[in-house]
Amino acid sequence: MNTRRLWIYLLVAVGALVLLSQTLFVVDQREQAIVVRLGNPVRVVNPPGVNGAGLNAKIPFAENVIKFDRRNIALESQQEEILTADRQRLVVDAFVRYRISDPLAFYRTLRDERTATDRIERLVNSSLRQVLGSATQREIIAGRRGQLMQLARQDVARRAQISRLGIEVIDVRIRRADFPETNEAAVYRRMQTDRQQEAARIRAVGEQQKREIIASADREVTITLAQAQELGETTRGEGDAQRTRIFAQAYGKDPAFAAFYRSMQAYEASLGQGETTMVLSPDSAFFRYFEQGPSGGRR
Fold first, then answer.
1. 139 lies in which domain range?
2. pLDDT for 185-225, tens place per residue?
3. How many structural domains comprise the chain?
C-alpha cells in the first residue's frame, strides 16, 4: 500500500512539473516572444518599447512560444555583380543592419529568421542593383558613395514597409566594390596605359620647357656677349681716340722727337724678331737715324 501511494505521488509530481513547464516560460531582455495558439499569434511578450521580460505564463499544450531577437541584427549579403551607368561591371559586397520592430507582422510574413535572412538579402541586392545602376563607377567608389548608401537605405526601408516585413532598416553599407576577376587584367592594362601616356605627356612638357629654358639662356648669353663686345669696342675706340689725341698733342710739341719715336717703333716692329730681310737703298730715309743719330730727323 505504501509503495502504491508512493508511485501515485511520484506521478502527480511529474505531471505537475510537466504542466508547469508547459505553462511558464522565460523571456530574456534581449528577446521578444510571440504566443501562438493553434497556429495563430495571439499576443507579443516584451515587444520594442515595452518592458515585459521575465517569467510569463501561457495556456499549456494549446499555446506555443516563438522567440525573436530584440537587438539590432547584422546581415551580410552575398556578392552581387552590378552594371553601372557608365557600363562598368562591379562586384559589390554589402551588409544591412535592422531590427524587428513589429514581431506580429514579421511572423505573419516571414515566419522565422532563416526565411527573413533570405528575403531581406534578396531585397537588399535588388535595391542596390537599382540605386547603384544609376551611378557611375567613380561615384560608387568615391564620389557619391555616402549619398548612394543613404538612397539605398531609404529604398530598402520603403520596400520592407510595402512588403510588411515588420522590420526597421537601420543602415545599408557597401563593404567592398571591386571589378570582376575577368575584368581586372584589362582594367590594370588600361590603368598602366593611362599612366604611361600621362608620363609621356609630362616628359614631353618637361622637354619643351627644357628647350625653351636653354634657348632663353642662349639668347641671354648672345645678347650679353654682344652688349659686352659693343661696350668693349666702344671703350677701345674711345681709348684709341684719346691715345691718338694725346700722341697728337705730344707730337705737336716736338715734331722731331715724334719722328724719331715713330722710327724707333718701326725699327722694333720690323727688326725686333731678328729674322727680317729688307732690301733698301743705302741712302733710304728709313735708316737715317742709324747714320745721323737722334738728330737725323732735323733739317
1. 73-178
2. 666 777 788 888 999 999 999 999 999 999 999 999 999 99
3. 3
